[in-house]
Write a structure and sequence with these properties.
Elements (H helix, E strand, L loop, with lengths): L29 E6 L4 E6 L13 E2 L4 H4 L18 E9 L9 E6 L3 H7 L4 H24 L6 E5 L24 E2 L3 E11 L2 E15 L4 E5 L12 H26 L1
Antiparallel strand pairs: 1-2, 1-4, 2-6, 3-10, 4-5, 4-7, 5-8, 8-9, 9-10
Protein backbone atom coordinates (compact mmCIF):
# COMPACT_ATOMS: atom_id res chain seq x y z
CA UNK A 1 0.00 0.00 0.00
CA UNK A 2 1.15 3.54 -0.67
CA UNK A 3 0.64 6.73 1.22
CA UNK A 4 -2.37 8.66 0.00
CA UNK A 5 -0.58 11.73 -1.33
CA UNK A 6 -1.47 13.04 -4.75
CA UNK A 7 0.26 15.20 -7.30
CA UNK A 8 -2.32 17.75 -8.39
CA UNK A 9 -1.90 18.73 -12.03
CA UNK A 10 -5.37 20.10 -12.78
CA UNK A 11 -5.97 23.84 -13.05
CA UNK A 12 -7.19 25.19 -9.72
CA UNK A 13 -8.30 28.76 -9.04
CA UNK A 14 -7.28 30.35 -5.75
CA UNK A 15 -8.60 33.69 -4.54
CA UNK A 16 -7.18 35.34 -1.45
CA UNK A 17 -8.47 38.54 0.10
CA UNK A 18 -7.22 40.00 3.39
CA UNK A 19 -6.50 37.12 5.75
CA UNK A 20 -6.09 34.23 3.37
CA UNK A 21 -9.20 32.31 2.43
CA UNK A 22 -8.90 29.72 -0.28
CA UNK A 23 -10.74 27.30 -2.52
CA UNK A 24 -8.71 24.30 -3.57
CA UNK A 25 -9.42 20.80 -4.79
CA UNK A 26 -6.89 18.10 -3.99
CA UNK A 27 -3.54 19.23 -2.66
CA UNK A 28 -3.75 17.42 0.67
CA UNK A 29 -1.29 18.44 3.41
CA UNK A 30 1.30 15.93 4.57
CA UNK A 31 3.70 15.83 7.51
CA UNK A 32 7.31 14.63 7.56
CA UNK A 33 9.29 14.05 10.77
CA UNK A 34 12.90 12.94 10.80
CA UNK A 35 15.51 11.90 13.33
CA UNK A 36 18.69 13.71 12.36
CA UNK A 37 20.78 11.34 14.49
CA UNK A 38 19.00 8.04 13.86
CA UNK A 39 18.77 8.83 10.11
CA UNK A 40 15.15 7.81 9.59
CA UNK A 41 11.95 9.66 8.85
CA UNK A 42 8.20 9.34 9.21
CA UNK A 43 5.56 10.65 6.80
CA UNK A 44 1.79 10.79 7.03
CA UNK A 45 -1.12 12.23 5.08
CA UNK A 46 -3.00 14.68 7.32
CA UNK A 47 -6.27 14.06 5.51
CA UNK A 48 -7.05 17.77 5.00
CA UNK A 49 -6.55 20.43 2.36
CA UNK A 50 -7.26 24.16 2.26
CA UNK A 51 -10.96 23.59 1.81
CA UNK A 52 -11.36 21.83 5.14
CA UNK A 53 -8.25 22.91 7.05
CA UNK A 54 -10.39 24.71 9.65
CA UNK A 55 -11.94 21.36 10.60
CA UNK A 56 -8.59 19.80 11.50
CA UNK A 57 -9.10 18.75 15.12
CA UNK A 58 -5.55 17.58 15.76
CA UNK A 59 -3.75 14.31 15.23
CA UNK A 60 -2.23 12.13 17.94
CA UNK A 61 0.69 10.45 16.19
CA UNK A 62 1.37 8.38 19.32
CA UNK A 63 -1.54 6.19 18.25
CA UNK A 64 0.35 5.20 15.08
CA UNK A 65 2.74 2.27 15.72
CA UNK A 66 4.92 3.54 12.88
CA UNK A 67 5.53 6.73 14.84
CA UNK A 68 6.11 5.11 18.22
CA UNK A 69 7.70 1.67 17.90
CA UNK A 70 8.01 -0.17 14.63
CA UNK A 71 9.87 -3.43 15.26
CA UNK A 72 9.52 -4.79 11.73
CA UNK A 73 13.15 -4.03 10.96
CA UNK A 74 16.04 -2.86 13.19
CA UNK A 75 16.30 0.46 11.38
CA UNK A 76 12.79 1.35 12.56
CA UNK A 77 13.05 -0.05 16.09
CA UNK A 78 13.26 3.32 17.83
CA UNK A 79 10.37 5.76 17.95
CA UNK A 80 9.96 9.39 16.89
CA UNK A 81 8.78 10.63 20.28
CA UNK A 82 10.83 12.86 22.57
CA UNK A 83 13.51 13.61 19.98
CA UNK A 84 13.72 17.27 20.99
CA UNK A 85 16.22 19.22 18.91
CA UNK A 86 17.22 16.02 17.06
CA UNK A 87 13.70 15.68 15.69
CA UNK A 88 12.77 17.94 12.77
CA UNK A 89 9.36 18.30 11.12
CA UNK A 90 7.65 20.13 8.31
CA UNK A 91 4.23 20.22 6.64
CA UNK A 92 3.65 20.88 2.94
CA UNK A 93 1.18 20.55 0.09
CA UNK A 94 0.90 21.46 -3.58
CA UNK A 95 -1.72 22.44 -6.09
CA UNK A 96 -1.02 22.66 -9.78
CA UNK A 97 1.94 21.74 -11.94
CA UNK A 98 4.34 24.40 -10.64
CA UNK A 99 4.74 26.25 -13.92
CA UNK A 100 1.36 27.40 -15.28
CA UNK A 101 0.37 30.90 -14.14
CA UNK A 102 -2.78 30.94 -12.05
CA UNK A 103 -2.97 27.24 -11.24
CA UNK A 104 -0.03 26.42 -8.99
CA UNK A 105 0.38 27.03 -5.27
CA UNK A 106 2.86 25.86 -2.65
CA UNK A 107 2.02 25.39 1.02
CA UNK A 108 4.72 24.86 3.60
CA UNK A 109 5.58 25.59 7.21
CA UNK A 110 8.13 28.23 8.19
CA UNK A 111 8.70 30.87 10.85
CA UNK A 112 10.05 33.47 8.45
CA UNK A 113 8.34 36.87 8.71
CA UNK A 114 5.86 37.50 5.91
CA UNK A 115 7.83 40.44 4.50
CA UNK A 116 11.02 38.36 4.43
CA UNK A 117 9.18 35.44 2.84
CA UNK A 118 7.70 37.69 0.17
CA UNK A 119 11.02 39.31 -0.71
CA UNK A 120 12.67 35.88 -0.96
CA UNK A 121 10.59 35.20 -4.07
CA UNK A 122 12.09 38.19 -5.88
CA UNK A 123 10.68 41.48 -7.18
CA UNK A 124 9.93 40.81 -10.84
CA UNK A 125 6.97 38.68 -11.88
CA UNK A 126 9.24 36.36 -13.87
CA UNK A 127 11.51 35.75 -10.87
CA UNK A 128 8.58 35.22 -8.50
CA UNK A 129 6.88 32.73 -10.80
CA UNK A 130 10.13 30.81 -11.26
CA UNK A 131 10.87 30.72 -7.52
CA UNK A 132 7.33 29.69 -6.63
CA UNK A 133 7.33 27.04 -9.36
CA UNK A 134 10.60 25.62 -8.01
CA UNK A 135 9.15 25.21 -4.53
CA UNK A 136 6.03 23.49 -5.91
CA UNK A 137 8.17 21.13 -7.96
CA UNK A 138 10.34 20.23 -4.95
CA UNK A 139 7.23 19.42 -2.93
CA UNK A 140 5.95 17.33 -5.84
CA UNK A 141 9.31 15.55 -5.89
CA UNK A 142 9.03 14.57 -2.22
CA UNK A 143 5.49 13.27 -2.77
CA UNK A 144 6.68 11.20 -5.71
CA UNK A 145 9.52 9.78 -3.63
CA UNK A 146 7.20 8.96 -0.74
CA UNK A 147 4.70 7.27 -3.02
CA UNK A 148 7.52 5.16 -4.45
CA UNK A 149 8.33 3.80 -0.98
CA UNK A 150 6.67 0.78 0.58
CA UNK A 151 4.28 2.66 2.85
CA UNK A 152 1.01 1.91 4.60
CA UNK A 153 -2.18 3.53 3.37
CA UNK A 154 -1.71 6.75 5.37
CA UNK A 155 1.81 6.73 6.87
CA UNK A 156 5.22 5.17 6.56
CA UNK A 157 8.82 5.11 7.77
CA UNK A 158 11.89 5.64 5.59
CA UNK A 159 15.57 5.13 6.27
CA UNK A 160 18.41 7.23 4.92
CA UNK A 161 18.84 5.05 1.83
CA UNK A 162 15.18 5.43 0.78
CA UNK A 163 14.30 8.08 -1.81
CA UNK A 164 11.60 9.51 0.45
CA UNK A 165 13.89 10.01 3.48
CA UNK A 166 12.92 13.47 4.76
CA UNK A 167 16.35 14.29 6.14
CA UNK A 168 17.95 14.15 2.69
CA UNK A 169 19.28 17.29 0.98
CA UNK A 170 16.38 17.06 -1.49
CA UNK A 171 13.96 17.88 1.37
CA UNK A 172 15.42 18.52 4.85
CA UNK A 173 15.09 21.89 6.58
CA UNK A 174 14.72 23.95 3.38
CA UNK A 175 12.52 21.81 1.10
CA UNK A 176 15.63 20.99 -0.84
CA UNK A 177 16.86 24.49 -1.58
CA UNK A 178 14.70 27.42 -0.48
CA UNK A 179 16.69 30.22 1.14
CA UNK A 180 14.60 30.15 4.32
CA UNK A 181 14.12 27.42 6.94
CA UNK A 182 10.93 25.39 6.53
CA UNK A 183 11.37 22.98 9.47
CA UNK A 184 11.38 23.19 13.26
CA UNK A 185 12.38 21.00 16.19
CA UNK A 186 9.89 18.83 18.03
CA UNK A 187 7.90 20.88 20.53
CA UNK A 188 8.00 24.05 18.43
CA UNK A 189 5.32 26.03 16.56
CA UNK A 190 5.45 26.98 12.85
CA UNK A 191 3.39 29.17 10.55
CA UNK A 192 1.65 27.62 7.55
CA UNK A 193 2.51 29.69 4.47
CA UNK A 194 1.02 29.78 1.00
CA UNK A 195 2.65 31.06 -2.18
CA UNK A 196 0.62 31.17 -5.37
CA UNK A 197 -1.08 33.05 -8.17
CA UNK A 198 -4.46 34.72 -8.66
CA UNK A 199 -4.81 37.20 -5.82
CA UNK A 200 -7.73 39.60 -5.98
CA UNK A 201 -6.64 42.85 -7.64
CA UNK A 202 -3.44 41.43 -9.15
CA UNK A 203 -4.28 38.12 -10.76
CA UNK A 204 -1.05 37.92 -12.76
CA UNK A 205 1.19 38.35 -9.73
CA UNK A 206 2.60 35.93 -7.16
CA UNK A 207 1.47 36.39 -3.56
CA UNK A 208 2.53 35.08 -0.16
CA UNK A 209 0.30 34.73 2.89
CA UNK A 210 0.05 32.98 6.25
CA UNK A 211 -2.73 30.53 7.11
CA UNK A 212 -2.40 29.98 10.85
CA UNK A 213 0.02 27.79 12.79
CA UNK A 214 0.81 24.13 13.43
CA UNK A 215 2.37 22.79 16.61
CA UNK A 216 3.95 19.34 17.06
CA UNK A 217 4.69 18.27 20.62
CA UNK A 218 7.54 15.98 21.63
CA UNK A 219 4.97 13.29 22.41
CA UNK A 220 3.57 13.49 18.87
CA UNK A 221 0.43 15.62 19.24
CA UNK A 222 -0.10 17.73 16.12
CA UNK A 223 -2.40 20.75 16.50
CA UNK A 224 -3.56 23.56 14.21
CA UNK A 225 -4.80 27.07 15.04
CA UNK A 226 -6.12 29.44 12.37
CA UNK A 227 -5.36 32.41 14.63
CA UNK A 228 -2.03 31.16 15.97
CA UNK A 229 -1.08 29.82 19.38
CA UNK A 230 -0.63 32.12 22.35
CA UNK A 231 2.97 32.46 23.47
CA UNK A 232 3.75 30.33 26.51
CA UNK A 233 4.34 32.39 29.66
CA UNK A 234 7.98 32.63 30.68
CA UNK A 235 8.36 31.14 34.17
CA UNK A 236 10.09 33.30 36.77
CA UNK A 237 12.92 31.35 38.45
CA UNK A 238 12.49 30.65 42.14
CA UNK A 239 15.74 32.53 42.83
CA UNK A 240 14.19 35.67 41.39
CA UNK A 241 11.26 35.41 43.80
CA UNK A 242 13.63 34.94 46.72
CA UNK A 243 15.72 37.90 45.63
CA UNK A 244 12.64 40.05 45.32
CA UNK A 245 11.44 39.04 48.79
CA UNK A 246 14.88 39.80 50.27
CA UNK A 247 14.98 43.26 48.66
CA UNK A 248 11.51 44.08 50.00
CA UNK A 249 12.56 42.93 53.44
CA UNK A 250 15.71 45.04 53.37
CA UNK A 251 13.74 48.09 52.26
CA UNK A 252 11.36 47.60 55.19
CA UNK A 253 14.23 47.35 57.67
CA UNK A 254 15.80 50.52 56.27
CA UNK A 255 12.54 52.44 56.70
CA UNK A 256 12.24 51.26 60.31
CA UNK A 257 15.77 52.44 61.08
CA UNK A 258 14.98 55.85 59.56
CA UNK A 259 11.81 56.13 61.63
CA UNK A 260 13.67 55.18 64.81
CA UNK A 261 16.43 57.72 64.07
CA UNK A 262 13.89 60.52 63.56
CA UNK A 263 12.05 59.61 66.77
CA UNK A 264 15.31 59.79 68.76
Amino acid sequence: MKIKLKLVAAAVALVVSGQASAALTGGGLFLTVWDSVGQKSYATDLGVNLQNLSTFAGLNLASDPLFTTNVTTPINSTNFQNLGANGKWTIAAVSGDGTTVGVSQALFTSNVALATLDSAFGSSLTARQAAKGGVVQRINGEITALNASLLSSTSGVQQATDSGYAGAVTWGTTLGGTIFTTAASMGQVMDLNIVGDARVGRTSSVFTDKLGQFRLSNAGLLEYSANGFAAAPVPVPAAAWLLGSALIGMAGMARRRDDEAQAA
